[in-house]
Design goal:
This protein is α+β, with helices and mostly antiparallel strands. 50% of the residues lie in helices and 18% in strands. The protein has 15 helices and 16 strands. It is elongated.
Length: 542
């Protein structure tokens, strides 16, 4: 047979070309065309079209949110300005008013609207006549800050840029309104302050904004590019004028666009200028959220396109059965795909040319699909940088262990001062450090334990059937090995760690992570490069 096979091929090649065209070739062409159309529609048209739609929708929503916030701030500052203007008219005869009367007016203004953290009255000589609350303690003193002196000199409505006060060291924004008596003589001004780092009118209005729950966030910048409001109070007062969107706001522009912030994170941002005070509102969403939504959409499309694909395959099987007996085995195999676990057909040669070619094509196609499916499953559960389990897989494992009542300890690890590593040596070196630390973790745990990159420079290990003390030994082994190892940057790298135990500390996966994270935070606060065990509920109640 082997010797005669090439001869048969030669004989077939001598036949007219039209005899080489068979119905099997047509069926293979139809199947191939359906696969090509499916791949083209799903991977190109659907992906690109919906990617653009999702991005445009997110940008539009963020821009709309920024407009509403800008309008809110604009209305707020008009109201604040109006309040000060009215108060200035009330205090036009303040020279004939005693201290208590002035103070009563200031207290009424401050408590009636809660717009200002403090209110001050300064006369035309620069002396503080009165202030609410009294705890500020500058009554009778001459104004010291340049902003206060500017307001006195201008003799007209004034809004300062954010600055730090000389006495209380607060980061504030100052708004003032001139006071003129009935004869039109300038008598000083009344001014209100907003304490940016403390509870203020902005935090009261925007503090519980729902965009935080969907991964979006917003912040407010002044006309000079300094942060005036941010959910992270450590960012207040920072100069971020290098941000491309902030630069456009400083130039008076509004709009929406994809951007990269100063931390290198890709965002979809909507930004709007506030007319009343020249501030800017920025609403931003991580572009990763869009890709998560896009992946969910693609999965839905694949789910709904599976029945038509099966129908097409049934048609192919029916046609194949009508042609010849050798196609029956292949047809049975195709009907089982997607319904049960099947083995790939062996590479057995068929006497029928069409059956042989189609069987080989299906073998390769199914093998390739199986390979791609396994790879996609692996990719969905694996961190691409370190090769460790990712966050989604970790949570699934924790819930499964808890359902099976398998005792385990959780170790949360965070590389100390990792941002400075990125800033000093670059993100590529930072990635090498993460991979280096991942290898150390896996070398210090048992094969059955779970190692996960939880996010950024934070890692988690699940140590099965391990007490708190045993987990502490593992954590210390990891910490010491990292500290003493030769690493990609050539400088000592340390890690802080927190430990919690199921079910000693909690029966909830989320609570275990939270408790271990609290212990990690304590390790950070206590000087870093150490391991802290989470406190028990009894200890937390005392």
């Amino acid at each position: 047979m082997e010797g005669s096979y090439p001869v048969s091929l030669l004989r077939k090649k001598k036949q007219p070309i039209w005899k080489q065209i068979s119905l099997t070739s047509l069926l293979i062409g139809l199947v191939s065309l359906s696969v090509l159309i499916t791949l083209t529609i799903l991977l190109v048209a659907s992906y690109q079209s919906n990617k653009k739609t999702l991005i445009d929708t997110t940008l539009t929503l963020n821009y709309t949110s920024a407009i509403k916030m800008s309008q809110t701030i604009d209305s707020l500052f008009k109201s604040m300005r109006s309040s000060l203007h009215y108060s200035a008219s009330v205090l036009s005869n303040m020279n004939s008013m005693n201290t208590d009367e002035i103070y009563s007016n200031l207290e009424l203004i401050r408590h009636s609207s809660n717009q200002f953290n403090s209110i001050v009255v300064v006369d035309e000589t620069g002396i503080v006549r009165n202030m609410s609350p009294k705890s500020v303690g500058t009554v009778g003193q001459y104004i010291r800050t340049e902003e206060a002196k500017t307001a006195l000199t201008l003799k007209k409505p004034y809004l300062s840029k954010p600055y730090i006060t000389t006495k209380t060291k607060r980061l504030i924004v100052f708004m003032s309104e001139p006071i003129y008596d009935k004869e039109g003589r300038y008598r000083g001004y009344i001014g209100g302050t907003i304490y940016l780092q403390e509870k203020n009118i902005l935090s009261m209005i925007f503090g519980n904004n729902p965009t935080d729950k969907i991964g979006s966030y917003f912040y407010i910048v002044g006309s000079n590019g300094h942060v005036l409001y941010h959910h992270d109070k450590n960012r207040l007062g920072k100069n971020i004028s290098a941000n491309q969107v902030v630069r456009k706001l400083m130039q008076g522009q509004s709009g929406h666009e994809q951007m990269v912030n100063l931390q290198g994170k890709a965002l979809l941002a909507g930004y709007v200028k506030v007319p009343e005070n020249g501030w800017g509102v920025i609403v931003a969403s991580p572009i990763s959220v869009v890709y998560e939504q896009l992946n969910d959409y693609i999965k839905t499309v694949l789910f709904y396109t599976l029945p038509p694909f099966i129908l097409l395959m049934l048609i192919v099987i029916g046609l194949a059965r009508g042609l010849a007996r050798p196609f029956v085995t292949l047809a049975d195999f195709m009907t089982k795909i997607g319904k049960e676990k099947v083995e790939l057909p062996k590479g057995k040669r068929h006497w029928n040319r069409e059956a042989d070619l189609l069987t080989e094509a299906v073998r390769y196609a199914v093998a390739d699909i199986k390979k791609q499916t396994e790879q996609l499953t692996l990719d969905a559960m694996t961190d691409p940088l370190t090769g460790l389990t990712n966050r989604r897989a970790l949570q699934a494992i924790m819930h499964r262990w808890i359902e099976e009542q398998i005792s385990f300890s959780i170790i949360i690890m965070d590389i100390d001062k990792f941002k400075s590593i990125n800033d000093t040596f670059g993100h590529q070196a930072g990635d090498e450090v993460l991979k280096h630390f991942a290898k150390i973790i896996t070398s210090c745990v048992r094969p059955g334990d779970v190692c996960c990159r939880f996010g950024g420079e934070e890692f988690i290990s699940l140590i099965s059937y391990a007490s708190i003390e045993e987990a502490h030994l593992v954590a210390e082994r990891i910490r010491l090995m990292l500290e003493k190892s030769v690493n990609p940057i050539g400088q000592t790298i340390t890690v802080s760690q927190g430990i919690a135990h199921y079910s000693s500390h909690s029966d909830s996966a989320e609570e275990l992570i939270h408790l271990a994270d609290q212990a990690l935070y304590k390790a950070k606060e206590s000087g870093r490069n150490q391991t802290v065990i989470a406190e028990f509920a009894e200890e937390l109640s005392h």
